[in-house]
């Protein structure tokens, strides 16, 4: 399998949205709902960082994606982002998440990010392993932080501190 990682562009949006919906339907990836996802790439992009938005492409098909979102508008947190990584259900376990993660980490450090954080459901063992393999550590458990389909859910808060950015 040869997977190309490239910058996400507007024409990728239908596939990115489709893969996101797969993740939503799993019930183990996000608090987002299908109705909350924008139909517009421009609207979606406005809520995400201008860097680190990648797609994984295999045989001209988008099979995964990554993006960063700012965690705060306060300047003190300008180097802190939240990462999202999704792979097509049929492609999970094939290294696409790792390939996207490596590209995203590189882009984050090139853009002055010193901390990447992620909120992951404790039951999402594959995502936890992916993040831990890439230098993330669990910093806490947020108990009953939000409801998903009328059920209170916990998330684990993970972070990865750069060893090259923000070390002065």
Layout of secondary structure:
Layout lengths: L3 E4 L5 H14 L14 H6 L7 E5 L2 E10 L9 E8 L8 H15 L4 E6 L4 H9 L3 E12 L2 E11 L7
Parallel strand pairs: 4-5
Antiparallel strand pairs: 1-2, 2-3, 3-4, 5-7, 6-7
Keywords: Acyltransferase, Transferase
GO molecular function, one term: acyltransferase activity, transferring groups other than amino-acyl groups
Organism: Enterococcus avium (Streptococcus avium)
| Spatial arrangement of strands, main beta sheet | 1-2-3-4-5-7-6
Tell me the major beta sheet: 7 strands, mixed
Give the overall shape: globular
Q: What is the CATH C-level name?
A: Alpha Beta
Task: Give an account of the 3D structure.
GO terms for molecular function: acyltransferase activity, transferring groups other than amino-acyl groups. This is N-acetyltransferase. Pfam families: Acetyltransf_1 (PF00583). Keywords: Acyltransferase, Transferase. It is a single chain. The chain is of the alpha+beta class. The protein has one domain (4-161): Gcn5-related N-acetyltransferase (GNAT) (Aminopeptidase, 3-Layer(aba) Sandwich), CATH 3.40.630.30. The protein is built from four helices and seven strands, in the order βααβββαβαββ. A seven-stranded mixed β-sheet has the order 1-2-3-4-5-7-6. A hairpin with a 2-residue loop joins strand 2 and strand 3. The radius of gyration is 15 Å and the shape is globular.
